[in-house]
Design goal:
By secondary structure, the protein is mostly helical. The chain has a single domain, classed as MetI-like (MetI-like fold, Orthogonal Bundle). The chain has ten helices and no strands. The longest helix is centred in the first third of the chain and has 42 residues. It is flat. It starts with a helix and ends in a 19-residue tail after the last helix.
Length: 240
């Protein structure tokens, strides 16, 4: 009986997994596009755009994601001009609202990660690229972007892990993702501990795989930081 219950539970959760992953991927992709624009505004020379970006980042980093989700899903529909606009077919769908709220939130965090990575680019390398006559576009592609990616990856990995966990909030706006399915199963079976241990294990596996993949990418992009095996290390020469 126990094995039948867990097999049935696992099957239901795995059926909801693609929706959870789709929610995560769309939110991260849209958030990345917004973050690039925010980073450009944040480090640019236009003081008005800089203030707008700073205010956006301050608001979305300083308020709970759950509140943002409720404001977008429940709040926007209260305005008549929103219901009569071309955006209403998008905003009336809970999945779209969840993607939008997750994307708007992660964009603020990603923008600060990118800004910090950009500021970490050594000025000497930029000056060297200018000295040999590199164009701004070539310098950005060959020098700045690779260094930015290496600098941003550890923090970006953490942000992606947090976003996978944040998708569990989508169940509060009627989306049948894994946590929502787990809550339904918990109420019907009265096996709260068992149900949420299983769904927690699935999230743990997802985050482990994501961390390992991005850790491998970081390792490949940082050859100068790799530790040489003992057999290949140059041995010190004794002079006497």
């Amino acid at each position: 009986m126990e094995s039948t219950f867990f097999v049935d539970l696992l099957w239901k959760l795995l059926q909801a997994l693609p929706l959870t992953l789709l929610l995560f991927i769309l939110a991260i992709a849209l958030g990345l596009v917004l973050a690039i624009g925010l980073t450009w505004m944040r480090v640019g020379s236009n003081p008005i755009l800089t203030r707008i970006a700073r205010f956006y980042i301050y608001v979305f980093r300083g308020t709970p994601l759950l509140i943002q989700l409720f404001l977008i899903y429940y709040g926007l529909g209260q305005f008549a001009f929103v219901r009569q606009s071309f955006l209403w077919p998008i905003l009336r769908e809970p999945f779209n609202c969840a993607v939008l709220s997750l994307a708007l939130c992660t964009a603020a965090y990603q923008a600060e990660i990118f800004r910090g990575a950009l500021l970490a680019v050594p000025l000497q390398q930029v000056e060297a690229a200018r000295a040999i006559g590199m164009s701004r576009l070539l310098m950005f592609r060959r020098i700045i972007v690779p260094i930015m990616i290496r600098q941003a990856l550890p923090s970006y990995t953490t942000e992606l892990v947090l976003m996978i966990k944040s998708t569990s909030l989508a169940g509060l706006v009627t989306i049948k993702e894994m946590t929502s399915i787990a809550s339904t199963e918990s109420r019907s079976s009265y096996r709260t501990l068992s149900v949420f241990l299983v769904v927690g294990a699935i999230y743990l596996i997802l985050n482990f795989l994501l961390s390992r993949i991005l850790g491998y990418v970081e390792h490949r992009l940082s050859p100068h930081l790799r530790v040489m095996p003992e057999a290949k290390r140059p041995q010190p020469t004794l002079v006497g």
